[in-house]
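I am sending you the entry underneath: sequence plus fold tokens. Let me know what the token row says about the fold:
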Amino acid sequence: MKLWGGRFEKRTDKLVEEFTSSLPFDRRLYDEDIRVSDVHAMMLARIGLLTEEEAKSIGKALKDIKKDMEKGIFKFEDSDEDIHTAIERALIEKLGPVGGKLRTARSRNDQAVTDLRLYLKKETAETIKLIEGLQEVLIKRAENDGETVMPGYTHLQKAQPILLGHHLMAYFFMLKRDKERFEDCLESIDRLPLGSGALAGTTFEIDRAYAAKKLGFSGVIENSLDAVSDRDFAIDFMACASICLMHLSRFSEELVLWCSSEFGFVEMDESYATGSSIMPQKKNPDVAELVRAKTGRVYGNLTALLTVMKGLPLAYNRDMQEDKEVLFDTVDTLTSCLKVFSGMLRTLRFNHGKMYDSTYDGFMTATDVADYLADKGMPFKDAHEVVGNIVKHCLGKGMRLTDMSLAEFSDFSALFGRDIIDVIRPRRSVERRATVGSTSPGQVKEQIKTARKLLGRPAGK
């Protein structure tokens, strides 16, 4: 049974039925479609287009259909174009002509986008919870492992010492922005399109506000053309997902590097690593690598939907059926990445000794030495040149900066005093960076404190 066909004399070609069917992917919207249909029936009864008994019988039949869907015993037919067709067909089979009354004052156009908004409301709320879960893991790791001094990098070259906790909390605040973006996205999703009909509204005196309240929407979409042709809310979600996965991909790249023997900063738990089919010694960071790869997949989904929408005139066009596959894939990919990343981060082991020892290479406290001279009154430009000459000297001698004696420092400037030996220690470098947002232990603790307040979870919870 099709939702259309009165003006057609020929049967639809089998290839066309297969080509245009969205049932293989939109069947996951069955719960939302049944909810929307149930509320629509109640609204029709409220305004007198259905009797109370008819609305109740429709509601009961819809519940039975839902049970069959959940049990996996619902029988789909080849003629079912989509989940809406399948459910209406089953409803009419159960109730006869009464089931056909449910289509009054609605179109598949406003019905489909209402289903999609309901689905995405639920998934966006779940995404926010998953982000909060990952943030909680970051906080705990920063609390438990954060005092370790490690190299900070620019251009992937050793730059300055930082605390591991500082590094971890950087990702917490990236995820904070992701969460805020999804919260904004949730607000944009939270409008009801039902009642817009195909594009121009309906001649029936429907109660859209009642339907919005029953379905949990905060309001209705003001323009019927916009309501059925808008997919901004899906694009918003996919854009937010792309940015969030970009952050996870950056972290994944670091973990892949840190797992290498060249770095040796972390070791993946065996439950979150895989081996090689030919090299028995291997333990590969496949989870991080796949998160990194799946980011590109979601970028592709976003580009696909933007491309679908870019040339469409108002209002609905069948092109828009292509919104669901890329959106569903984005939801599934983001969900799995957030879940697996939390588990991977929770179980990995940081090599604290290796991290700390690495801060003695690469002249990482050279800026501290320049700051020292500037504090003594030397222009920073000149101090920068003096320290550059010191680094050149060390390179020529095969020395670290911490191998320098006071006498050697004094050869480069009379401003150096005995306290320079303390200044060049990596841990001391970290401790002296105490401005708001910096890497000192006190400031990292403040970041963790702020983070716990943002999550509404006191320490120890």
Remarks:
- The domain at 14-104 is CATH 1.10.275.10 (Fumarase C; Chain B, domain 1).
- The CA atoms of residues 189 and 233 lie 5 Å apart.
